[in-house]
Each structure stands twice: as C-alpha cells, then as structure tokens.
Amino acid sequence: KNIANKKLLFVSNQDGDREIFITNLNGENLKQLTHNRRDDYDASWSPNSQFILFTSNRNNGDSEVYIMHADGSQQTNLSRSPGYDGQPRWSPDGRTIAFTSDREGDIAIFSMGLDGADVRKLTTDNTASMSYTEPVWSPNGQWIAYRKQNERAKGDLWLVKLSNGQHRQLTNNEKFDDDLPRWSPDSEKLTYQSRRDKEYNIYSYDITSNKEFKLTNLPSADSRPRWSHSGEEIVFISTRGSTGRTQVFIMKKDGSDQQGLTIIVFKLMMPNGLMMIREFFMLAGRGGMYRMFF
What's the order of all strands across the beta sheet hosting 189-196? Predict the structure, then answer.
C-alpha cells in the first residue's frame, strides 16, 4: 500500500521551529511526526513509501541526516558526523542515499546505505573554495546531477556517472549562476533556473546532444521548473505580468505554449511556514483534469 499517493508530507514552523507533518490530501487527519525545539526539514518519501528521509539540527545545532518510518517511529541519525550533513536524496531503487557534507572540509557530495554505512565520496576537487550541492538522481539511477560552486560563489551544473565515477560538466558560466536542476522522467534532459544578464530564466539541457536550450526569455523572474509526470510539460513560477506578482505557469517541454495557471490577483510564495516537501503541484486544468508535477 503506497501511502505517498494518499498523504501529503510537508514541513511547517507553526509552533516556532520547523517540524514534519503528514495529512490526507483533503487536509484531514493531520499528524505531527517530529517534536523538537530544533528544526526538522527537507523531508522526502522513500520510493516504497515505507520511510522518510529528513535533515535535523536537533543534536545541539549540528545538522544531520535522519531516517524514520512513515508513521514517525524509530527516528535514527544516519550521518553521525560533526559539522554539516544535509540535502538527503533517495536513489530511485531506494537502496542508497546521496547527501552533502563538510566532513572532509568544503561541502561535497557523498552516498551511504540505509543504515548509514558504506559512506562514499562522489565529488573530489583539489581547488580551494569549491562546494558541491543539490544532488539529484536521474530516474534511471545512472547519474547524479549536482551544482558545483566556484570561488565567485557562482554555480555550474555537472553530472557524475555512478557506474564509473566519471564527472561531466554541462554548463560553464563563470559569472552566472545555474541551480535547481530537475531530471525529465526519461532521464534524457535537465531543467534548471539560471540568472544571466540580471534575470532568472529557465533552461533545459539535453545530455545526449550536449545542447542547452533557453525555454523562457522575458524581462521577469522565471524559476523553479518542475516536470510533469508524463514529461511533456514543465510547470514554473514567474513574476511576468503588469503586477509583478509571483504566479504558476505551464509550458510544453520545448518552451512553447506558455500559459498562466493561477489567478493574477493573488501572490504565490515559497513560505517558511508551509512547504510541500516532495516538490509537486497537483493543479486542476481545463475540463476538470488534474496534472501532477514533481
């Protein structure tokens, strides 16, 4: 039984610090899973919906990666390392966890098993002031995309192939910042946001042809792209329009047919008080049809 199809996993700071909750999709049967005077956040379902990964600084402010059962029981520290450990991400088969850590100096990307053992460093660089963040597994489990930050605090996107550890640079913009990569369901493309010429726009990268495509090109902030489950559409947020209010838009995977999905009189935000953790939208479209975006 896949409870992730029936429950919403989210983080809220309604009692002062960030805690993890689940609720039915209709908003009923709200249950708080963590209870600390510190922050518990960045939570995600395991592929089989039996476990939840999350980051917590409950250990005297030391950020660690934790795992718990879907009902909140048996909360266990997996990373167990002084300093920073965070951004845990499930492999598609649910057997391995990628995460970021400063346990060896600058922030790098590591992997570990579900029991916290077999820790392996996936990124290495002898250049000072580098950091590696935002690991994202490809749906086929062959690659991890990540953001490599240079000494200017600007990030480019890279891939590491899990079978041989080879790294491959995708974007190369010394003065610009590329981040928040997301894989297409077929593992052939990445979407991401990039701030170039003082504006955020959305790009895609075809890892087979090694070509980058600019999907949005307006004097506004277009950001946070997410693929539809079918891979045919991309949803994103934008400040386009006369009011400059943040709204949800949708476009085809090639950037065409860009349309607004939310009412312009409201402003949508990514609030600290309530965050959907699995990063999906379920939106009512024309004809009463629903579309889901991860």
Answer: 177-183, 189-196, 199-206, 211-214
What is the spatial distance between Cα 185 and Cα 5, in angstroms, rounded to a whole number? 18
d(CA 181, CA 155): 11
What are the backbone angles phi and psi of residue 8, rounded to the nearest 5°?
Answer: -105, 125
Question: What pTM value is reported for the model?
Answer: 0.83
What is the distance between the alpha carbons of residues 29 and 24, in angstroms, rounded to a whole number?
Answer: 6
For β-strands 155-161 and 167-169, DSSP reports them as: antiparallel
Residue 150 confidence (pLDDT): 73
For residue 205, the Cα-to-chain-centroid distance in whole angstroms is: 17
Give the bridge partners for 86, in sequence order: 100
Q: Is 165 helix (H, G, I), strand (E, B) or coil?
A: coil
pLDDT greater than 50 at residue 275: no
Counting residues of the chain whose pLDDT is more than 90, the rounded percentage is 62
Amino acid 189: pLDDT = 97
Residue 104's contacts (CB-CB under 8 Å, 6 or more residues apart) are: 121
SS3 (DSSP) at 288: helix
Q: With 0-12 CB in 10 A as exposed, 13-18 as middle and 19+ as buried, what is 147?
A: buried
Confidence label for 288 from pLDDT (cuts 50, 70 and 90): very low
